[in-house]
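General statements about sequence and structure are easier to judge against a single worked case. Part of our work consisted of pairing the sequence of a single chain with a tokenised description of its backbone. The amino acid sequence and the backbone structure tokens for this protein are reproduced below.

***
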Amino acid sequence: MKATIMEYIHQCDVCQRKKYQALSPTGLLQHIPIPEIVWDDISLDFITSLPHSQGYDVILVVIDRLSKYAHFLSLKHPYTACSVAEVFIKEVVKLHGFPKSIISDHDPLFLSKFWSELFHLQGTVLRMSTTYHSQTDSQTDVVNRCLETFLHCFAFEKPTKWHLWLSWAEF
């Protein structure tokens, strides 16, 4: 079965065109504690510059650092800290509660006063990745790459329909 799958992948035009190179990370530049409880420590990132799909053009990727389970939340540009917080609470907090810590890049949205106050009130620590060193949050980058590859492969004939594949990708 493995040989048949390998042969299929090598002959699949879409698989070969959308394949990405995986390079070893150069190492962590900031100590990040290993999580002990699922959904206590998460990482967040945005995938932007997507073609419009039912009005959506951004994906908020939310990943549990322990279980590696991810939620993919579609957003419409322009989005605000308030609109992202609303989607975050509606789709993540209702299922898992507020996390104890969040790793994010230096996105101005997560540095906003609203998010800072929300996290402070809930006792959540916002940990920022090291600037220009994505390996601090390489787990999110890997999931983003996998999601982009999945969407490229399944929506390649109709790229404006990527939104319909998000639930399948999360599954």
